[in-house]
Amino acid sequence: MGEPNVHKRQSAVCAAVAGIGILVPATAHADSAADSVKALPVNALSNRPLSAPALLPPGRTAARTVRTHAAGPLSPSLRFSDVGMLSVAGFAADQNWIAGTSYSFDFGDGSAPVSTSGSAVSHSYSKPGTYPVTLTETDPAGDSATVTAPYTTRGTNFSPYGPTRLLDTRNGTGAQQGAVAPGDTIRLKVAGVGSVPANAAAAVLNLTVNSPTAAGVITAYPDGDRAAPGTASVDFAAGQTVATLAVAQLGADGTVDLLNNSSGTVQVIADITGYFTPAAAAGYTSLSPVRLLDTRKGIGAPAGVVGAGKAVTLTIAGADGGQLPGSGITAVALNVTATGTLGTGYVTAYPDGTTRPATSNVNFTAGQVVANTVIVPVGSDGKIDLYNSSTGTQIIADVDGYFSAGGTNAYLPMDPDRIDDTTSDGWGPIPGAGVRELGLIYTADPDTGDPVPMALGMNAFVMTTTVTNTAQSGYLTVYPFGVTRPVVSNLNFAAGQTVANLSLATAGTDGAQNVKAVDYYNGTSGYFDVRTDLTGVFGTY
After folding, report:
1. Dihedral sign, CA of 244, 245, 249, 251?
2. Collapsed DSSP state (helix, strand, coil) of residue 110
3. What's the predicted TM-score (pTM) here?
4. What's the pLDDT tens digit per position in 404-419?
5. Is the peptide bond prior to 163 cis by the omega test (within 30 degrees of 0)?
6. What keywords sit in the KW lines (predicted)?
């Protein structure tokens, strides 16, 4: 396959950094000789200086200016622009400016004030939050005036919640009782419900589709004056019960929209396991995926089928030979797979030492292999439980990362956007046992070569990955570029199936292309296509 012409493409990360997505060729690499791809696409993003309006959700102004009039001629004003998840630029101005005036910026986080003869200073916070920023203006005569204004970071931290059921159209929980009609949208209020704070920016929702009368998708997106994006949060066939995790950005009113994009009716269920707010809470630590549990092999628990009504207790604290800390983990991101299923049922993930909630995470029928990502609160003993409702099943769990007070990665929620689709990107399906590199964002400006701090600080990407046109049964593995492929899987499928799952994908750095990137591995002997929908990113800048 030859190299495509370079062309421009808009994407959600692009909107967050006010750049343009550029599809460029990358060097192929293979896990086996079966990978026949000669050149691979990198859906990368150029990073020009950030534009504050592009960083902000609807309803939030790009620049917040507060003025104060001193007794003398000084009249300072203070303006902010976001330059990253945790970084801000402060701008000073004065309608009565005098040559020789100096400024001091105190960013309200305990760091030393920054004095400058210029009118702009940038600053990076270590944690999300709302901070009182004080500007002191001093003229050559020694007269001074101050102004203070609050600044709220764009980045957010995670707080575990529940699990709790917020929506069930079968019984009228959270919405009108009854199946959702074709093309209809459920407006699900999340922020301000129960003990979820009113300023929640995103929510972790396990979305389950039940009794669909036709194939289709559920699309989750922030409520507001906008059209539904062309993305998928849950992909389903007629008659199928299937669950997929979503980290859903909320609208300014704290509501998420759930669109039934099918020609039939469908019942929809939503269980919340946490939320993100612009306040200091639990930050994320991304990991290269590793298997913590496999009841088929006795990894993480005794070998054997998990019986009816039984639960596996999985130790998270100190797991993977101590790669996970021994204390302080508040929640963990896992890909949970049910395999060797002996009957119809579900798996529920919940904190050890608590009452099992009336929720579900993985739904299956006899003989199926089904995976779903979970972000589950961890019990005070550092453990979680995985409950099986069916006759029996084997359970696998692969860890992607964890949340803790010491986690340094904040979360930047975004409007959902399809950033790649192999059915239309000019490169075609991924071959059996082949690897496809997906570049996500430039780490250096393509024109100047200057490093891009925000991109360099991005460590994990929240993406719904959908596999379709599957020629053989198998699995997909998503893992960081530049590392040996781990023995894990992200989603499983039978021939002819279309299956979606969320990934908290840790990114590697492709130095040759100057991009953050992940690899997709096709764990079958046949081709399949992949669609990738981006909903947010974890980072430190």
Report:
1. positive
2. coil
3. 0.89
4. 999 999 999 999 999 9
5. yes
6. Signal
